[in-house]
Automatic annotation (TrEMBL):
Keyword Cell inner membrane: no
GO CC terms, sorted: membrane
Main location per the UniProt record: membrane
Assigned protein family: Belongs to the anthrone oxygenase family.
Listed InterPro entries: Anthrone_oxy
Highest classification ranks of the organism: Eukaryota, Fungi, Dikarya, Ascomycota, Pezizomycotina
Molecular function GO terms recorded: monooxygenase activity
Subcellular location: Membrane
Keywords: Membrane, Monooxygenase, Oxidoreductase, Transmembrane, Transmembrane helix
TM spans (from-to): 73-92, 104-124, 179-197
Record protein name field: DUF1772-domain-containing protein
Domain of life of the source: Eukaryota
Amino acid sequence: MDTNVTVAQAIGSLGCGLAASSMSFTSLTLVPTLLLPARHVSASAVRTDRGPGTPIAHLSRQWLDVQNAGHRMLPPLTVAAALANAYLAWILRGSPAPAAVGVSWAKFYAAAAVITMGTVPWSVLAVQPVVNQLEAHNARHDAIVADKTVGLSEQDQVKHAAEDAQVPALIERWSTLNLYRAVFPLLGALLGVYGVFG
């Protein structure tokens, strides 16, 4: 097999797999850890409040740092994997595929590229509205901290407390949507692996 094909298959399969595993890890492990309630050493100090064990402003800042780190790494990785699959669709356009595949290699790898890029509309339509709400919360808190000269009115304090109370649920919602987003590169990775070994 041509070296270019082998390299493109590796980039497509491994890139999709890494993107899917990173998204899944964030949603299944990292976010639930951020949302853990405070730990109590004494068994008699049973906590009835099940909220996160860190102040909401800190929690939303931690989430924003996680979101920004993923946003820097995962879109380029996903695009590179999809481009590798698109390259395979182009370079293998005349190659016959085994009967088990059911379509030409060109259509097979084109499908892998399109499915992988399904993260883009999902991110824009489903995930971004939640991201916008959480980023607005961070911006509001940063503005309050920066403007130390003005105290908040009682009405503003009540409003901000209500907004703060929504943050853990918004982070959980983002986590769920992010886990669904991982399905696209996971399917791309499975197609890529099948293309290599199938």
